[in-house]
Amino acid sequence: QVQLVESGGGLVQAGGSLRLSCAASGRTFSSYAMGWFRQAPGKEREFVAAISRSGGSTYYAESVKGRSTVSRDNDKNTVYLEMKRLTPEDTAFYYCAAGRKYMAAMTSYDYWGQGTQVTVSA
């Protein structure tokens, strides 16, 4: 059993950067691959990035690849998502999730956080 809590969201101007955090409690954090998803009003939840259990492998959506970095600190039971060169299209509610593998499909994850709002102003 894992409980996830996201933080670090907020308002940022276009072109700026933001780092989101996801703190886990429950069983050993390193037992799970972690994923980040986002959902904008009126749209379906979409994959953003994922990282393997050890942090040795990462996977990004094409929309954020090259300007985003997902990382984790297993000693702190925390996963991070840093996004740079943000645009209004990045505005969404961001969720972290824990699962068996670092996949893009939502069904690959068993546990979800409550989310944190990211708003990018033009």
Count of DSSP-assigned helices? 0
- Cα-based radius of gyration, to the nearest Å: 13 Å
Structural class: mainly beta
Question: Quick check: average pLDDT?
Answer: 95
E-strand count: 11
Main sheet: strands, sense, barrel: 7 strands, mixed
Q: Give the distance, in angstroms, between the N- and C-terminal Cα atoms.
A: 40 Å
| H-E order | EEEEEEEEEEE
User: Low-confidence parts lasting 5 or more residues at pLDDT below 50?
Assistant: none
Classify the oligomer. single chain
Strand residue percentage: over 45%
- Indicate the percent of residues in helices: under 10%
The outline comes out as globular
Summarize the structure in words.
The chain has 122 residues and is an all-beta fold. Helix content is 0%, strand content 53%. The protein is built from no helices and 11 strands. The strands form 2 sheets. Strands 2, 4, 5, 6, 9, 10 and 11 form a 7-stranded mixed β-sheet that branches. Strands 1-3-8-7 form a 4-stranded antiparallel β-sheet, with no helix packed on it. A hairpin with a 4-residue loop joins strand 7 and strand 8. The chain is globular and about 40 Å long. The mean pLDDT is 95.
Keywords:
mainly beta, 53% strand, four-stranded antiparallel sheet, 122 residues, seven-stranded mixed sheet
